Each structure stands twice: as structure tokens, then as C-alpha cells.
DNA sequence: ATAGGTGCAAATTCTTTGCACTGTC
DNA sequence: GACAGTGCAAAGAATTTGCACCTAT
């Protein structure tokens, strides 16, 4: 994952100004390995900037996304962001339903999926959801998790 | 895919009343093989019921989803619905970015993904996006498609 | 100094909810 | 006839936009 400094450098290089808010944002994504919603970000940053407004958060998230610094993923519960993986090679993710941390899967199913000749593949999505070691169901069976709760199994 | 009648029967069996709107909804999903947004549904049904309100559409979509009659998929552009596949066995989909039709992929990458022992897999998602034969990019390069347009490649 | 960034307020879009009326069973 | 389903209006969430002020470069 990109470090706080790499994120700031990326902004600098693209002519963006390094404001306090952006430093904090860089720090957040540089240090937090999981996915965050705009709200999460707002709440985190709001602790430091009392007058913070939501639109600033949204604007900066979008800017960082367009810079390629952040990944944006649409979950059932909504859009979330995380720092881009620094690994260069193509990979997928296992995503913990509890803590939202992600773990890389190097295996890519596309190699093995023989798309019929008449289907032009543009993009693919392969995501595995579950509970990581730290969050293993055994530890906490309660339906407390805000994220893992209402999931429907999307298998066909 | 489920037929119009199967959808209606499913509603009946669950004690739901078969109103005109629901008949039309069943017909729509029984005959339309692709994904539809709530708005698509509203517009389709609105042609028949002038006084139709959005909340009725939402309510019925949710009811049908909870019945397991509809599948709900979150796209970059938002939530979409389609009739559930009648094929019993587990499979995945190739989804045409132009016409939104889906084609089954019998291959499931989970068999080959060795999740580390400490990750408890709950669910997975494998979706391939592209252009089907009928919509092959060659035929129409224009950026007209309302759905396929602004896609960003979500590969990591 | 000046262009880009921020906060504020308001607009948009998508979705849900409360309530009285209507139609299905 | 009862009660689920509908339309309407309004409330909420999530996100975007216009504008005047502020601040990094």
C-alpha cells in the first residue's frame, strides 16, 4: 500500500496544494489498510478540524481517486475507499466483513475462464468475503458488526 | 430465468396479493433478460399506470428481492435488478456492458482459490464485464450506451 | 498575487416512511 | 370486510454545485 509520504508526493507532483486537511487525509489512507466510507473519513478528519465540511471530504476523495491514489469500490452498503495497492501485478482481494481489511489473492480466475470468442472481456471482478483471523466468527458470533450483518449471499 | 408465471406463482405462494402492478412487474422481469434499475422499472411500468409512484416500484422490487425472485447487483452506476436464474447449480455471470444481458459461467474460481486457513470464507463474487456478440465494440464504438459509458477498470 | 482549496448553504439524486384510500382475497 | 398494496407527500441519506473567503505556492 502507498505510504502517507507517497500519497502526499503524488499530490504535489500533480500540482495539488498540500493543505492541512490533505495531509491528514494522506495520513489516514497511508496508515489505514482497510476500506473507508466518506463518512468514516469525515468523522476521522472532523476530530481534527471542527469546521470540516462534507463536501471537502468528497472533493478530496474524488481528487485522490482520479489521481489513482485511492481505489474506489462499490459494496452492497455503499461506496468505499482505500489506498491503492503498491503491488504492481494484477491481483484480487479477500475482504473481511468485520474489520474491512483486505488480503491479496494473487490467483486470477480470468486466466482460466474461457470466455466464448464472441464475448469481448473488458473487466472483471473477483472478491472473496469472509472473516479474517483476527475477526474469526468464533470470537464474536453476535450480529453486531455494522458491515457484515445484513449481507445476502450473492451466489446465483 | 424464471418465467412471468413462475414469478407470479412465487408471489401467490407467499401470500402476496397479485395486483395489476405486480403482474406487470412479473411480466417485465419474466421477459427481460438483463439488469434493470428502479428507474427503468418505473419508466416501463409508468407507461401503463399513469399515477404510478416510485415508492411502489421500490417496495415491490424489495419484496421480490426478499422473496428470492429477483437478484440485486450493485454496479458502479448503482443498484440493478434481474430475474433470478432458474439454473440450480452455482454459477457466475458475464455481463454485457451494452445490453446488460448476462451469460452464465459455470466455472467457479473458489474451487481453485486456496484461502489461507485463517480466513473464513463466507461469500464470493466473480463477475466478468464486456461486450457480447450482438454488442461487440466493432458494431458501435459511440459512447452512446447509457450503461457502458463511464466505466473505470476496477482491476487492482 | 493568484489560482486552487475550503466552508457554507442549497440543490440533486436515490430511497424510505407515514398515512389515508383502494382493490384483492 | 379485512388487510395488504397503492399513491402522495414528505423525510432522509448520499453526493454535488455555486459562491465568497482564505491560504499554499
Could you walk me through the main structural features you see in this protein, from its secondary elements to its overall organization?
2 copies of one chain form a homodimer. In chain A, the strands form 2 sheets. In chain A, strands 4-3-5 form a 3-stranded mixed beta sheet, with no helix packed on it. In chain A, strands 1-2 form a two-stranded antiparallel sheet. Chain A has a domain at 4-88: Arc Repressor Mutant, subunit A (Orthogonal Bundle). Helices cover 29% and strands 21% of the residues of chain A. The first copy, chain A, has helices spanning 4-13, 20-31, 38-46, 54-67, and strands spanning 70-75, 78-83, 92-96, 102-105, 120-131. Residues 140-156 of chain A have low confidence and may be disordered. The first copy, chain A, is α+β, with helices and mostly antiparallel strands and 156 residues long. β5 (120-131) of chain A pairs antiparallel with β5 (120-131) of chain B, so a sheet runs across the interface.
Structural class of chain A: alpha+beta
- Overall mean pLDDT of chain A stands at 82
Strand content of chain A: 15-25%
- Annotation field: number of helices of chain A: 4
pLDDT < 50 runs, ≥5 residues of chain A:
140-156
Binding site for Zn(2+) (chains A, B): 96, 99, 132, 135
Protein name (chains A, B): Transcriptional repressor
Subcellular location (chains A, B): Cytoplasm
Cofactor (chains A, B): Mn(2+); Fe(2+); Zn(2+)
Features:
Arc Repressor Mutant, subunit A; DNA-binding; homodimer; 4 helices; two-stranded antiparallel ribbon; globular; 156 residues; alpha+beta; three-stranded mixed beta sheet
Amino acid at each position: 500500500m502507498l505510504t502517507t509520504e507517497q500519497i502526499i508526493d503524488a499530490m504535489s507532483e500533480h500540482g495539488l496544494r498540500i493543505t492541512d486537511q490533505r495531509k491528514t487525509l494522506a495520513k489516514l489512507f497511508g496508515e489505514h489498510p482497510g476500506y473507508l466510507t466518506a463518512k468514516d473519513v469525515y468523522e476521522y478528519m472532523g476530530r481534527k478540524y471542527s469546521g470540516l465540511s462534507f463536501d471537502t471530504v468528497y472533493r478530496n476523495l474524488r481528487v485522490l481517486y482520479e489521481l489513482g491514489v485511492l481505489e474506489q469500490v462499490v459494496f452492497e452498503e455503499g461506496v468505499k475507499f482505500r489506498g491503492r495497492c503498491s503491488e504492481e501485478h494484477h491481483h484480487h482481494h479477500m475482504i473481511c466483513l468485520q474489520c474491512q481489511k483486505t488480503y491479496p489473492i494473487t490467483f486470477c480466475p480470468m486466466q482460466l475462464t474461457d470466455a466464448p470468442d464472441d464475448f469481448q472481456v473488458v473487466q472483471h471482478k473477483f472478491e472473496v468475503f469472509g472473516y479474517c483471523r483476527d475477526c474469526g466468527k468464533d470470537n464474536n458470533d453476535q450480529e453486531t458488526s455494522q458491515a457484515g450483518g445484513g449481507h445476502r449471499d450473492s451466489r446465483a
